[in-house]
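Closing statement on the zinc ion sub-project.
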Amino acid sequence: MTPRAAAPAAPGARARAAAMTPARLMEEARRVRRMAHAPYSRFPVGAALLTRSGRVFLGCNVENASYGLTTCAERSAVFAAVAAGEREFVAIAVTAREGHGAPPCGSCRQVLQEFAPGMWVYWRDQRGRIQKSRLKALLPKAFVFRKGGA
Ligand SMILES: [Zn+2]
């Protein structure tokens, strides 16, 4: 099955995306953090992913008794967006509990860069302030698959 392109953005999509400020997106991430399944680390994380069409996809970390099967909040949000036909990402907000900084881990940075190297990444520092960076600054020299060799 070939991947299906996302439907063209509806009129007003850019305006909706623009209206989603870092603070609003962070609030969405904070709300979904409550859904995290984190009985082992007790480190619940929420993520809210904004697409170019103005939709927001949510994710939380889902841990497993077999630790290696755990999935981060950011990747949960990306997978939900891709399954809905969305691949153009504008920004993602990530938050752990107050007092804990939670920039995306290396695995999540690599997964995000597959779709949108130029996207914005928002996270909270330990004082609760929203930090932001372009993804490409957080993951310089990302792995990119090229047929026939690097
Ligand atoms: Zn991660």
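Strands lie at 46-51, 56-60, 89-95, 120-124, 130-134. With this model delivered, the sub-project is considered complete and its resources will be redirected to Aim 3.
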